[in-house]
């Protein structure tokens, strides 16, 4: 429920009261004596759904920008007229709480912090995210998402588009661009310092860290987070859900990939940096496209018959730009997704073939330890490099002919350049049954079959 207070300009008092009486609204009128060109102050409660259409009618009746409108939350209204009005706007008994576009603009503006605070919070988030990725710590990365104030700019830009508020639109897009750029630059600086200090988790291959690898080789499923965040962000703004949780979703789509760009640039892995940068841009486009589409479907447009057409055109233009760019940039993600599917299928087929070969009585002394499909590391779109089969044995040295046999069985499931490598783990035990002491060492002998 909302409680409205409107200062009525001179000559518009009767028009305002006629609208309120026609709508069946219970109101109170006070004379305005400040001498500022107003004749009265009208106060009345409204169901949330009724705010937008009633304000539209008042504007069509001649209450323009010179009128002052205050909308506040109301806890309880006890009135027969209000109950009737609420039923009238409940749409078949579903008493929704759709926020009026006037309130929507205000909320979107309030969610966008002052630039100085925005910049400081983003820099802190960038530092935390970079540290979390370098240390492969999911908890630290989540902490960076909580800090980042990205919800307001993402929503403000699209609210500005569909409601014709150019200032809100410019602010939203500028904050998004500056924010992502700031995170990338800050991450480069911190990652360079970490590299100079010799902090290299996983050795030379920095992307071996799981938290980082997920961002430099993204697939199409990465779009789900961004699209969901955009839709949820608008619903939180229009339906009164928790903005904090949705803000974490939007940050999850933007902060870690942006930090990944900085880390990979600092390490000179430009292919991986391209993959992470593509994910950042795709997520930005997805969030804005989802938010814009959700707002338009929900019916948020400027009031008046003559204002819909001018706003529909820029909305369609922005939606087209977002959509076309998203489709173009999603192509690499589709390639990564295809590689993921091929890798999964190859690994499954290899496990079956290895089990079938080792079922031969001649290999009773061998046990399968692991089957892995290794990629070539050429980011962002990798390809299968080799299949590594690890077996354990109590006899030192490779098993003659095993690698060739495995290669012949696995080759039909891959391409012509597939390499099959067999690694042997030799174990030795000493001690009695009550106090065993075992030593296991990786055999240095490898046997491979290839094209």
Automatic annotation (TrEMBL):
The protein's UniProt keywords, in alphabetical order, are:
Membrane, Transmembrane, Transmembrane helix
Show the Pfam families listed in the entry.
DUF389
Chain residue ranges for the region called Disordered: 429-451
Report the InterPro entries cross-referenced here.
Answer: DUF389 (IPR005240)
Its domain of life reads Archaea
Transmembrane region(s): 115-134, 140-161, 173-196, 216-237, 244-267, 273-296, 316-339
Write down the PANTHER family for this protein, in alphabetical order: AT15442P-RELATED
Protein's name according to its UniProt entry: Putative hydrophobic protein (TIGR00341 family)
Q: Which organism is it from?
A: Halopiger aswanensis
């Amino acid at each position: 429920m909302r409680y409205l207070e409107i200062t009525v300009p001179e000559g518009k008092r009767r028009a305002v009261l006629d609208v309120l009486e026609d709508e069946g609204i219970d109101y109170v009128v006070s004379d305005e004596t400040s001498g500022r060109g107003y004749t009265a102050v009208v106060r009345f409660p409204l169901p949330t759904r009724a705010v937008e259409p009633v304000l539209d009618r008042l504007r069509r009746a001649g209450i323009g920008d010179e009128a002052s409108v205050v909308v506040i939350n109301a806890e309880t209204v006890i009135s027969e007229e209000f109950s009737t009005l609420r039923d009238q706007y409940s749409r078949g008994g579903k008493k929704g709480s759709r926020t009026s576009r006037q309130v929507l603009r205000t909320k979107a503006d309030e969610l966008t912090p002052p630039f100085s605070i925005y910049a400081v919070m983003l820099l802190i988030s960038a530092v935390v995210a970079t540290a979390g990725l370098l240390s492969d710590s999911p908890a630290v990365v989540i902490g960076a998402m909580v800090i980042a104030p990205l919800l307001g700019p993402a929503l403000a830009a699209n609210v500005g588009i569909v409601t014709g508020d150019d200032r809100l639109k410019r602010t939203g897009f500028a904050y998004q661009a500056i924010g992502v750029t700031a995170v990338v630059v800050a991450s480069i600086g911190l990652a360079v310092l970490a590299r100079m200090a010799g902090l290299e988790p996983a050795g030379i291959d920095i992307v071996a860290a799981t938290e980082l690898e997920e961002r430099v080789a993204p697939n199409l499923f990465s779009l789900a987070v961004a699209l969901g965040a955009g839709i949820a962000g608008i619903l939180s703004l229009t339906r009164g859900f928790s903005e904090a949780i949705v803000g974490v979703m939007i940050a999850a789509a933007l902060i870690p990939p942006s930090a990944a760009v900085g880390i990979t640039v600092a390490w000179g892995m430009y292919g991986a940096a391209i993959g992470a940068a593509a994910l950042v841009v795709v997520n930005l486009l997805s969030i804005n496209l989802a938010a814009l589409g959700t707002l338009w479907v929900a019916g948020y447009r400027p009031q008046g018959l003559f204002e819909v057409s001018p706003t529909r055109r820029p909305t369609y233009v922005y939606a087209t730009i977002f959509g076309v760019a998203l489709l173009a940039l999603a192509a690499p993600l589709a390639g990564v997704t295809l590689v993921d599917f091929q890798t999964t299928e190859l690994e499954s087929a290899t496990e079956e073939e290895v089990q079938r070969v080792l079922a031969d009585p001649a290999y009773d002394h061998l046990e399968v330890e692991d089957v892995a499909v290794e990629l070539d590391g050429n980011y962002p779109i990798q390809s299968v490099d080799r299949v590594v089969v690890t077996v354990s044995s109590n006899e030192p040295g490779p098993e003659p002919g095993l690698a060739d046999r495995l290669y012949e069985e696995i080759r039909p499931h891959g391409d012509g350049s597939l390499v099959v490598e067999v690694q042997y783990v030799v174990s030795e035990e000493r001690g009695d049954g009550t106090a065993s002491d075992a030593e296991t060492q990786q055999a240095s002998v490898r046997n491979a079959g290839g094209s």
